[in-house]
Amino acid sequence: MGVQLPRWVWVGAGALACIAGMVNVVGYLGFEHQAITHLTGTTSLLGAALADGDAGSGLRLSGMILAFMAGAAISGLIIQDSALYLGRRYGVVLMLESLLLFASIGLFKHQQIAGALLAAMACGLQNAMATTYSGAVVRTTHLSGMFTDLGIGLGHALRGMPLPRRRLMLSSLIIALFATGGVIGAALFRRFAYDALLVPATLTGLVGFGYVGYRQWRLAHPRAQA
């Protein structure tokens, strides 16, 4: 299946993947060594905690899962529709994500699990929004689907089948920028500790403002090419 997404979605997806890469590496390097932007490992750890009867870890990990889901639910409440439409309130979601990331910094500094919960909620917001505006083609907070698409493309190439080049380009873009965000986030964390989250929090806010400005321009110039 080809990917027919407007240019602003490609730019936004790449920027958000880089932001998610920064947030997630800070979670891994922080006091809990906790993944923030996805739940696969968290769910596995929850299973292990339940098997070991570790109630404390079970509650903490359950909280991470519920916080991510709560962020996704809030995104669904705000955007309300799965159809891609420039007038949707994506900017509101991005502003809220930015505020959650800013709020998490002080909690992280005091080694409060609430910092990780707020960051997970922010990432749930982001991932749900990206899923909504792309029709489930784009995931910006984890890479399993992107690597799967690349693997499928490789299999098709080996069979001599036509390649969905735009989809593969989009997957490669998200993977590359998520990894770049990880490099940047790790370097910032080693120098500034949890203040490293100021960068993704600020960038999220700027992406939100940029979206609002672009939306207004597009609405004023409806004949402009997407």
From TrEMBL:
It holds the Pfam family DUF1275. Keywords: Membrane, Transmembrane, Transmembrane helix. The keyword Ribosomal protein does not apply. It comes from the Bacteria. The chain crosses the membrane at residues 7-29, 58-78, 90-108, 168-190, 196-214. InterPro entries: DUF1275. PANTHER family: SLR0142 PROTEIN, UPF0700 TRANSMEMBRANE PROTEIN YOAK. This is DUF1275 domain-containing protein. It comes from Montanilutibacter psychrotolerans.
